[in-house]
């Protein structure tokens, strides 16, 4: 994606606009923890759930209560929450210089083996917002249960430029 200025790549904030994405309100911790910590240029997000206005939007496990499509939708919601939390903490998504790591936890039942297809929902959205050159490494884990009965949980680590301008 190229900005109207010519050959400059579009910024993350501009890409959100171009994609028609309006970020939800940043989520708040549902327990005794903080949702974000920055150490140097690394910015870590706690496990993001598919919540909206403090309420879980999806409940269940892939392969039992939810199908692959619902799993992708739940993960997209969690990813939007991650973007919103990052923006709330660092001020602008344009400060993100790289998506370093994505960890996707999927509550699954029995013989569900399409975890990578569900996890692609997060990777694809992050790619669309930050660009192909900032794609991350990724781990995908199938688990028996997640907090509050959530079907997905997402952890993201970003590299951000320092406020002074360097990375």
Overview of the structural elements:
The chain has 167 residues and is α+β, with helices and mostly antiparallel strands. Helix content is 28%, strand content 24%. The strands form two sheets. It has a five-stranded mixed beta sheet with strand order 1-2-7-5-6, covered by helices on one side. Helix 2 packs parallel to helix 3.
How large is the radius of gyration? 16 Å
Question: How does the helix and strand content classify structurally?
Answer: alpha+beta
The proportion of residues forming helix, as a percent range, comes to 25-40%
Report the total helices. Answer: 3
What is the string of helix and strand elements? HEEEEHEHEE
Largest sheet: 5 strands, mixed
By DSSP, the count of extended strands is 7
Rough shape? globular
**Content of β-strand:** 15-25%
Q: How far apart lie the N and C ends? A: 23 Å
Placed side by side, the strands forming the largest sheet appear as: 1-2-7-5-6
Pfam family, one: YjgF_endoribonc
Protein name: RidA family protein
Domain Endoribonuclease L-PSP/chorismate mutase-like: 13-150
Organism: Tunturiibacter gelidiferens
Concise account of the structure shown:
It comes from Tunturiibacter gelidiferens. It is built from three helices and seven strands, in the order αββββαβαββ.
What is the topological layout?
Layout: H1 12-18, E1 36-39, E2 42-45, E3 51-52, E4 55-56, H2 68-90, E5 96-107, H3 115-130, E6 137-143, E7 152-160
Parallel strand pairs: 5-6
Antiparallel strand pairs: 1-2, 2-7, 3-4, 5-7
Helix pairs in contact: 2-3
């Amino acid at each position: 994606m190229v900005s109207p200025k010519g050959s400059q790549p579009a910024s993350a904030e501009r890409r959100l606009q171009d994609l028609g994405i309006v970020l939800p309100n940043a989520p708040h911790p549902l327990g005794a923890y903080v949702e974000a910590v920055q150490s140097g240029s690394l910015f870590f997000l706690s496990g993001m759930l598919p919540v909206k206005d403090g309420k879980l939007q999806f409940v269940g496990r892939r392969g039992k209560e939810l199908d692959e499509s619902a799993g992708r939708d739940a993960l997209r919601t969690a990813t939007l929450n991650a973007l919103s939390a990052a923006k709330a903490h660092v001020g602008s998504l344009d400060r993100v210089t790289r998506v370093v790591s994505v960890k996707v936890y999927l509550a699954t039942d029995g013989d569900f083996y399409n975890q990578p297809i569900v996890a692609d929902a997060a990777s694809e959205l992050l790619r669309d917002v930050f660009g192909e050159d900032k794609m991350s490494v990724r781990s995908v884990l199938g688990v028996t249960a997640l907090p509050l009965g959530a079907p997905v949980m997402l952890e993201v680590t970003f590299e951000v430029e320092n406020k002074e301008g360097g990375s």
